[in-house]
Amino acid sequence: MFDIGLSKMALIGVVALVVIGPEKLPKVARTVGTLLGKAQRYVNDVKAEVNRSMELDELRKMKDNVESAARDVEQSVQTSARDFEKDWNETTGSITGSTSFSSSSSESNWDGDVSSSSYSSVTPAYNHPRKNWRVKRGAVPQWYKSRSGVRTKAQSGAARVARFRPKKPI
């Protein structure tokens, strides 16, 4: 920041010692140090705020670019889907108009509709994959737990007291 060498610092110290005096010099030096520290923190805070605002502007620009690219992709997908649907309708319209299919209850129609009786007979019932959900399957083997003294069964406080209560002699 400033080009101050050792000789200039010594000269400033001697002048300060003469002007301020030896009794007040340590207190003034502490005050000057505190003020310089506050000034440096303030400058650093201002720099950080400027950097944050610049990054925020960059992020806003990037967000706008990504949103415009997403809109362009969405529009191109929609136009290609419309073109495909138009071609598909033209193609399927010419096929269904030229040929006729007999549809029975076990066959599916040309449009992809399947009769409900044939569909329900083919579809299996859903079974949940974890039918024994109460059984815990831990990664630590049971023999290791028993050897290291890990409790495997939960016990209430009253049951624990009753279990370890000394027996009364009869």
Automatic annotation (TrEMBL):
Q: Give a short account of what the protein does.
A: Part of the twin-arginine translocation (Tat) system that transports large folded proteins containing a characteristic twin-arginine motif in their signal peptide across membranes. Together with TatC, TatB is part of a receptor directly interacting with Tat signal peptides. TatB may form an oligomeric binding site that transiently accommodates folded Tat precursor proteins before their translocation.
Q: How does it sit in the membrane?
A: Single-pass membrane protein
Question: A GO CC term?
Answer: TAT protein transport complex
> Which BP terms does GO give this entry?
protein transport by the Tat complex
**Where are the compositionally biased (Low complexity) regions?**
91-123
This protein's major location comes to: membrane
Q: Where is this region: Disordered?
A: 67-127, 146-170
> HAMAP family recorded for this chain?
TatB
Q: Which PANTHER family does this entry report, sorted A to Z?
A: SEC-INDEPENDENT PROTEIN TRANSLOCASE PROTEIN TATA, CHLOROPLASTIC
Source species, domain of life: Bacteria
Record-level Gene Ontology MF annotations? protein transmembrane transporter activity
Where would you find the membrane-spanning parts of this chain? none
Name the chain's protein: Sec-independent protein translocase protein TatB
NCBIfam families under this entry? tatB (TIGR01410)
Known partners and oligomeric status: The Tat system comprises two distinct complexes: a TatABC complex, containing multiple copies of TatA, TatB and TatC subunits, and a separate TatA complex, containing only TatA subunits. Substrates initially bind to the TatABC complex, which probably triggers association of the separate TatA complex to form the active translocon.
Record InterPro entries: TatA/B/E (IPR003369), TatB (IPR018448)
Q: Which UniProt keywords apply?
A: Cell inner membrane, Cell membrane, Membrane, Protein transport, Translocation, Transmembrane, Transmembrane helix, Transport
State the family it belongs to: Belongs to the TatB family.
Q: Where in the cell is it found?
A: Cell membrane; Membrane
Q: Which Pfam families match?
A: TatA_B_E
